[in-house]
Write a structure and sequence with these properties.
The structure holds 2 protein chains of 2 kinds. By secondary structure, chain A is of the alpha+beta class. Helices cover about 30% and strands about 25% of the residues of chain A. Chain A is built from 19 helices and 30 strands. Chain A is elongated. Chain B has a single domain, classed as Bira Bifunctional Protein, Domain 2 (BirA Bifunctional Protein, domain 2, 2-Layer Sandwich). In chain B, helix 1 packs across helix 6. Classes of the chains: A alpha+beta, B alpha+beta. At the A-B interface, helix 2, helix 7, helix 10, helix 12 and helix 13 of A face helix 1, strand 1, strand 4, strand 5 and helix 4 of B.
């Protein structure tokens, strides 16, 4: 989620500079992907993209959440905004809300009459735009602002487009609903909707419906601040293929205890924007109250998990900053888990909490010694033996793709069109041999010999060995066990035979290469090196391999050396004409007396 | 030509895998292997992935069509998304065989259902390991992984551990390496979640342990400067340079 630094500063005015803050977040909370500097209306801001982890989505997918965490972490002032929200005077209401499904834990509703829909105040537009959200109208903006501020998704219905009461219920099979963005949905009976006495108005926790949409003529509204079962929201949204910020929050589970804060904030915002509106009483149906939880842990266990000495004082120091209620008796803590911290369940969670707050750099690394006698894994031993065998026979190792377009085992969905698991290695090797044979001159090999050891499914999973060469009619392929029939019984794995290399990878060109042979008569006794040097010096940097001597013979008092030259460019397809030019330059050089003292003859 | 030059060339991932396995073998780890097509139990649920939870979104999974239809008893099959499956199987077996403490290392092919580009491939290799005992801690995890990356990338490399989240570890840490002046995300790690230990048949009040896992291709790309992960699986011998 994107966070505005200035927005955070409302709540933590003493926060360090944005870059420093980003580092603190990365080392103690979650990774900051980037910090973007922006100038908004002549005011500087920094936008932090923080990758909130799934276990903290409950409380940190909001400016207030991150600010509260940072206030405690850094032990700096946290300005709680709650008391600043104006509470509107309210009148009795006739709003009736019924929760008819276990998948809704709480539903708070409120009717507000006489609102004026229009553009939002400047500060709201700026806040939303700073984190990449578009301003729509004051009602929608207020709802969005509350979500990005405190993490509670909300919704606003046009009261006069609804009839009767609000019912939270499971959808009927094939029940229809058109979303705010005009998507026509056919619902399933495990989807949850907010409905009136006639029709579904919204998909609970996922997306609002067109039918009760707030528009420019809307006068009276119903606010929705609710809490839904995370699995239900996730299943519904997956089925409907809808991604919304509300879904993201609900499917990660939210505390129903957050709802009153959302209602208070949203009401205050609407009061600010529509001072003349008439607020009715809040209707709060809280059918599944969140239980207060206690968590017990031993500070010794925390030390044992972290491998560092944590004492009672370290822990109490943290809890004071985080405003945790706790009792402690000889190293055993009992804490009242804050309602928003759904992630704190077991002792190990507290090890993480204490570890990350202190910083994992405080844990000193050590190399453990354990009394464990490793055994040899048979499959690994066979693979290693087979590989060494093939390498020593001159076969080179390749790896090809597991996926192909026909086979006996099929994946259900794939990002690619190859949906089957291979039944053999041979098909991949044939392709590989074709590719490598075309490049045989680049590889500096006389013949190409390749192998692969890998898994196939026919349809049961098997490890195969296959090898192939350009002097063989077809690839050989067999099961690993069959290849290893003659494996010595005492095969030892202690002989890892590799030599780690620190060389850098040399990329290859994707353009075709051109080969030219040149044969030269030199006086008998003249070494090939001199000729090779002339070739290298004049062949330009398009020569991508050492000149390779493939023939030499002596007749009378002359020796003929034949060299092969391979030309290739990294950025274009070479033309015959430009290589001809290089070759004639080389020929002229060789013939020239100045080059070698005599003037050699090119055959 | 002499005997030596007739020898075939080795795939760089094999070379690197052997090097990595040697480092861990020297620290007392046992090499383990396991199937590439796994049950959803070993790929997810033994590892404390809750059903229908957003944590599953962290993995783009290839589910396999069962020719006999889905059956409740065998569960669904997936191409393993990590070799933590091997770790889980090995730890479970070590528990049954009474081999505690224990330490396992595995390197194997894993699969992710995502669009490919220079840093993403549908198949790649993962290195995954664990050590379980009475007092195995994050200090040990830090020691082992720091040693490993210094062996792989050179003694000058710096290693850092930052907070993270994985369903199968608690606490969870992300491992970063500073290589040629840049911090790079290397692998996930942490202390095995007590639910995982229990799912593997161990008594989580008696033993604890660390686990880690990350891409081998990524280490190869960083170490040798290989620009595109897809080059590993083209069957092109020009890759075998090391």
């Amino acid at each position: 989620m994107l966070y505005s630094y200035n927005w955070l500063k409302w709540y933590i005015p003493d926060a360090p500079e944005a870059d420093k803050l980003a580092d603190i977040i990365t080392y103690h909370i979650a990774e900051v992907e980037n910090v973007k500097h922006s100038v908004f209306d002549k005011k500087e801001d920094w936008i932090l993209d923080i990758k909130i982890l799934p276990n903290r989505a409950h409380d940190l997918l909001s400016h207030l959440g991150i600010a509260r965490e940072l206030g405690s972490l850094l032990n700096i002032n946290f300005v709680d905004p709650t008391s600043k929200y104006k509470i509107p005077e309210s009148k009795p209401t006739k709003l009736k809300i019924t929760i008819d499904t276990e998948k809704c834990r709480r539903y708070m509703g409120r009717i507000i009459r006489g609102v004026k829909v229009g553009p939002s105040p400047e500060w709201i537009v700026k806040h939303l735009e700073s984190i990449g959200q578009r301003s729509i109208n004051n009602m929608v903006d207020a709802a969005n602002l509350v979500m990005f501020d405190c993490g509670q998704p909300t919704h606003v219905f046009d009261l006069n487009k609804t009839s009767g009461e609000l019912i939270v219920r499971e959808a009927k099979n094939e029940e229809e609903l058109t979303t705010l963005d005009n998507k026509e949905l056919k619902l399933k009976n495990y989807n949850v909707v907010i409905a009136d006495s006639k029709k579904a108005l919204a998909v609970a926790g996922v997306k609002g419906g067109k039918i009760a949409e707030v528009d420019n003529n809307t006068k009276d509204i119903i606010l929705e601040i609710a809490n839904f079962d995370p699995i239900s929201v996730r299943k519904t949204a997956q089925y409907l293929n809808i991604f919304t910020d509300a879904r993201k929050r609900f499917e990660n589970d939210l505390s129903p205890e957050l709802a009153p804060h959302g209602m208070r904030e949203l009401s205050a915002l609407i009061l600010e924007m529509c001072p003349g509106a008439i607020f009715e009483d809040i209707v709060d149906v809280y059918s599944q109250k969140q239980e207060e939880r206690k968590l017990l842990f031993n500070v010794e266990k925390i030390s044992k998990i972290l491998g560092a000495n944590i004492d009672v004082k370290d822990v109490t120091n943290i809890f004071k900053r985080y405003n945790f209620f706790y009792t402690e008796d000889s190293g055993i803590f009992t804490i009242a888990v804050p309602a928003m911290r759904l992630d704190l369940e077991i002792e190990e969670d507290m090890a993480e909490e204490i570890g990350r707050i202190m910083g994992y750099d405080k844990v000193k690394p050590k190399i453990p010694g354990i009394s464990f006698i490793p055994k040899t894994d048979e499959t690994y031993a066979k693979i290693s033996w087979a590989r060494n065998q093939l390498l020593s026979e001159g076969y080179s190792e390749v790896m090809t793709y597991t996926f192909c377009d026909k086979g006996e085992v099929e994946v259900m969905q794939s990002a690619s069109d190859k949906k089957f698991l291979r039944t053999n290695l041979s098909d991949g090797l044939k392709e590989s041999l074709k590719l490598n044979s075309a490049n045989v001159l680049l590889l500096g090999m006389d013949t190409v010999k390749i192998f692969e050891i890998g898994t196939v499914w026919c349809p049961n999973e098997e490890i195969h060995v296959s090898y192939f060469g350009d002097t063989m009619p077809k690839p050989e392929e067999m099961k690993l066990e069959d290849y290893c029939k003659n494996i010595p019984s005492d095969v030892s794995l202690s002989t890892f035979h590799f030599q780690p290399s620190t060389r850098r990878f040399a990329p290859w060109s994707l353009f075709p290469f051109i080969v030219r042979d040149i044969a030269v008569w030199v006086p008998e006794g003249e070494s090939e090196e001199k000729l090779k040097k002339i070739l290298k010096e004049n062949a330009t940097n398009l020569l991508i391999k050492e000149p390779y001597i493939f023939d030499s013979f002596t007749k009378e008092d002359r020796t003929s050396y034949a060299f092969r030259l391979v030309f290739q460019s990294y950025d274009r397809t070479l033309t015959d004409a430009e290589i001809n030019e290089i070759m004639s330059k080389i020929t002229n050089k060789i013939k020239d007396k100045k080059t070698n003292g005599i003037g050699w003859q090119v055959r | 030509m002499n005997e030596e030059s007739k020898k075939g060339t080795i795939h760089p991932l094999t070379l690197l895998a052997n090097q990595a396995l040697q480092v861990f073998s020297e620290l007392g780890f046992e090499i383990a292997t396991g199937p590439e097509l796994e049950s959803d139990w070993y790929n997810f649920y033994v590892l404390n992935f809750p059903k229908d939870h957003p944590a599953l979104d962290m993995q783009d999974t290839f589910w396999v069509r069962d020719p006999e239809g889905e059956s409740a008893t065998t569960g669904k099959k997936v191409l393993r998304t990590h070799t933590t499956t091997v770790t889980a199987r090995a730890v479970e077996k070590a528990g049954i065989d009474g081999r505690m403490p224990c330490a396992f290392i595995s390197i194997g092919k894993v699969f992710r259902n995502e669009a490919t580009d220079i840093t993403h491939e549908m198949q790649f290799f993962q290195i995954d390991g664990t050590m379980v005992g009475e007092n195995i801690s994050i200090a040990d995890l830090k020691g082992v992984l720091t040693h490993f990356y210094k062996k792989m990338l050179g003694p000058e490399v710096e290693i850092e551990f930052r907070p993270s989240f994985f369903p199968f570890t608690e606490p969870s840490l992300e491992v970063f390496a500073k290589f040629k002046g840049k911090w790079l995300e290397m692998m996930g790690s942490g202390m095995l979640h007590p639910n995982v230990l229990r799912n593997c048949g161990l008594d989580s009040s008696k033993v604890q342990g660390f686990a880690f896992g990350g891409g081998l291709d990524r280490i190869a790309m960083i170490k040798w400067g290989i620009p595109d992960v897809r080059l590993f699986y083209q069957g092109d011998l020009r890759l075998n340079q090391f």
